[in-house]
Design goal:
The complex is a heterodimer. Chain A is mostly helical. Chain A has a domain at 2-176 and 244-261. Helix content of chain A is 72%, strand content 2%. Chain A contains 11 helices and 2 strands. Chain A has helices at 2-17, 19-41, 48-77, 80-85, 91-119, 128-155, 158-174, 187-193, 197-209, 217-222, 236-260; strands at 227-229, 232-234. In chain A, strand 1 (227-229) and strand 2 form a beta hairpin. The longest helix of chain A is centred in the N-terminal third of the chain and has 30 residues, at 48-77. The radius of gyration of chain A is 20 Å and the shape is globular. Chain A starts with a helix and ends in an 18-residue tail after the last helix. In chain B, 36% of the residues lie in helices and 28% in strands. Chain B has helices at 44-51, 73-79, 95-105, 110-123, 139-151, 169-186, 197-201, 220-227, 239-248, 267-276, 291-299, and strands spanning 4-15, 18-29, 33-37, 59-64, 67-68, 80-83, 157-161, 189-194, 205-210, 213-218, 230-236, 253-256, 259-264, 281-287. In chain B, a hairpin with a 2-residue loop joins strand 12 and strand 13. In chain B, helix 3 (95-105) packs parallel to helix 5, helix 4 crosses helix 5 (139-151) and helix 8 (220-227) packs across helix 11. The model of chain B is unreliable at 305-316 (pLDDT under 50). The chains are: A mainly alpha, B alpha/beta. The A-B interface holds A 2-3, 6, 10, 13-14, 17, 75, 78-89, 262-264, 268, 272-276, 278 and B 40-41, 44-46, 48-49, 52-56, 74, 77-78, 80, 82, 84-93, 97, 100-102, 104-107, 149, 161.
């Protein structure tokens, strides 16, 4: 427990020390909001501003939680991970500490954007909605932090990771309906988007923050908050379950991989001789 | 002698078909300094990494303080401190934060963490730099932070993988002063790998490793006695006369420029002999054999290409 809290303290401190990153992360969402809310007006979505903002909030939570992977890779290539690994600390504790700190940062980021969004007209009718929103952001944070940790522990190498990271995040980001309405995508990509966990995370989060969880199935489908596969409708409620299942798989996978992986045979940046190449 | 704190029996480590460490066995006594000497790629770091539990062995038995490194990893990790060859500091945090994290990892009781941090910083003379970011420190200071950190949990065995490589002689001397003080005060065992001969020479035991095999294992003085001879370098005003003299005493010599290099068996009687003919001697220097010479003798190769400030003792 002491390790987990200490790791969280460390990572959150590192995050706050990087002021520029913090400011950019706050400004960028509003830049995108301005850029894409007009696109969504064209596809007959009600309240397009808040609809887009909700999507952006959840994609920021997703992106911020994936930063865990970058920071873990940094710790591996800077050598710091070795200090951690020769200590008697359990690796599972390290994995949990990393996941929770990344979740905290991601949720904090999401909340900040929502607070600014409040002044843009993002209003709720019951106080339960903001609480549920925070709870869901934490869930998404945990899910994608685990996913990120799994990627980092599997790849280990900074250069390879950059390529993998782009290859993985680009489709997830663009095929989830946040930046481009799914109905504007070609059929093939629309089909692919159904395999993207962020599609369901986005749909549920929008339904939740626009307080549309109880409207009819047809309207949900029209607003791209539910998905029709043949005659079968995936409701926002089912979306949560899909996301949670995806998360569960990666929580288990990431802790297993992180505990088992051999960090000693990591290629370090050139010019930085590793003791194991001795 | 007490029970050995490190026991290595028939240790083998293979990477695919390449054998990095080949059936190595040795023991290290509690409270002693043990030096592992050998060229790059000899298997030093592989052995250290395996003893430190971060690399798996292929076969063999390795025990530290009675705990098996393969099955009792945590028991081993609790009693060892490690300074790796490459820095493992957290550069984005301050010195104090680095030390604090270490205390958390090693479960040093919260109530004594601050006291411990002050203690180790005092040892390495960095108390003033407690709040400094690690990235702002010089190379030598970083090394000292790393050594301080490895002492926080008061390990029984301290592994130092080339601890002073790249440091200036003064810093090196300081670091050694601290390490030796600690070793005496706490009866700590030190397991060292090094390129520097003078560092190996202060050890109680030296193991010379090459191509994954231990080729010599003894006290430094014994190794030198066994494998090296003292060397005398003579410059003379009468080359013919000196050559005759050396031939008379049946001493082999080599000529390097105008310097005669002579292997000396008995320094005292040699000096006596030279003393009788001091008129023809312009200069005389007697060099003790070094561990580098030992290595050279056994393998026929130099331990490092560039020479170090060797431990030369001169007479005359």
């Amino acid at each position: 427990m002491r390790t987990i809290t200490a790791l969280m303290y460390r990572n959150i401190k590192l995050f706050t020390r990087n002021r520029l990153q913090l400011i950019l992360l706050l400004i960028m969402p509003y830049f995108y909001l301005y850029l894409i809310s007009t696109i969504f007006k064209s596809v007959s979505i009600n309240d397009s501003m808040n609809y887009v903002l909700a999507g952006i909030v959840i994609i920021v939570v997703f992106q911020t939680s994936l930063n865990i992977a970058t920071s873990t890779i940094e710790d591996i290539s800077s050598g710091y991970m070795k200090e951690v690994l020769v200590s008697p600390v359990k690796r599972v504790e390290i994995a949990i500490g990393q996941i929770l700190s990344s979740t905290t940062i991601a949720s904090f980021q999401g909340i900040l954007i929502l607070i600014i969004g409040y002044f843009f007209g993002m209003k709720y009718t019951t106080p339960i909605t903001p609480l549920a929103i925070i709870a869901f952001m934490i869930l998404i944070g945990i899910v994608f932090s685990s996913f990120g940790l799994f990627l980092a522990a599997s790849v280990k190498n900074a250069q390879t990771f950059q390529i993998i990271s782009v290859a993985v995040t680009t489709p997830i980001t663009f095929l989830c309906g946040v930046y481009v309405p799914l109905s504007l995508l070609p059929n093939g990509l629309q089909f692919l988007s159904l395999f993207n966990p962020m599609t369901y995370a986005t749909a549920f989060f929008r339904a939740l923050s626009l307080e549309k969880l109880s409207v009819s199935a047809d309207e949900l489908v029209a607003q791209e908050l539910a998905f029709k596969i043949g005659n079968y409708v995936i409701t926002p409620q089912m979306s949560v379950i899909i996301v949670a299942l995806f998360g569960l798989i990666f929580i288990i996978l990431s802790t297993i991989v992180f505990s088992k992986v051999d960090f000693t045979r990591v290629t370090r940046p050139s010019g930085n001789k590793d003791i194991f190449q001795q | 002698m007490t029970m050995p704190i490190i026991v290595v029996e028939d240790f083998v480590k293979k990477y695919g078909s390449f054998t990095a460490v080949d059936h190595v066995s040795f023991t290290v006594e509690t409270g002693s300094i043990f030096a592992f000497l050998g060229p790059n790629g000899a298997g030093k770091s592989t052995t250290i990494s395996t003893l430190c539990t971060i690399m798996d062995k292929t076969s063999g038995n390795l025990l530290i303080d009675g705990n098996d490194i393969a099955t009792d990893k945590n028991a081993v990790r609790n009693v060892i401190g490690v300074v790796f060859q490459d820095s493992t500091l957290d550069y984005k945090m301050t010195v104090e934060e680095n030390l604090n994290m270490h205390c958390v990892f090693y479960n040093v009781p919260k109530s004594i963490v601050d006291e411990r941090i002050d203690l180790v910083l005092n040892i390495v003379n960095l108390s003033k730099w407690k709040k400094a970011m690690v990235s702002s420190l010089s190379g030598g200071m970083k090394r000292r932070v790393e050594i301080a950190r490895s002492l926080l949990h008061i390990p029984k065995v301290l592994f130092l993988d080339e601890p002073t490589t790249g440091l200036d002689p003064q810093t090196r001397a300081n670091i050694w002063e601290y390490i030796l003080k600690l070793q005496k005060e706490r009866n700590m065992t030190i397991f060292l790998t090094t390129h520097y001969m003078e560092e190996a020479e202060i050890s109680d035991k030296v193991a010379i490793i090459d191509h994954g095999k231990i080729i010599a294992f003894d006290e430094p003085s014994e190794l030198k006695k066994q494998y090296t001879k003292d060397i005398a370098e003579i410059i003379t005003s009468n080359e013919r006369g000196l050559e005759k003299l050396l031939e008379k005493y049946q001493m082999g010599y080599k000529k390097r420029g105008n310097v005669y290099v002579v292997e000396v068996n008995e320094v005292a009687s040699f000096l006596e002999m030279v003393g009788e003919h001091k008129k023809i001697i312009i200069s005389l220097e007697v060099k003790k054999g070094t561990l580098n010479d030992v290595f050279l003798k056994i393998t026929g190769r130099d331990i490092r290409r560039q020479s170090n400030a060797n431990d030369n003792s001169s007479y005359v």
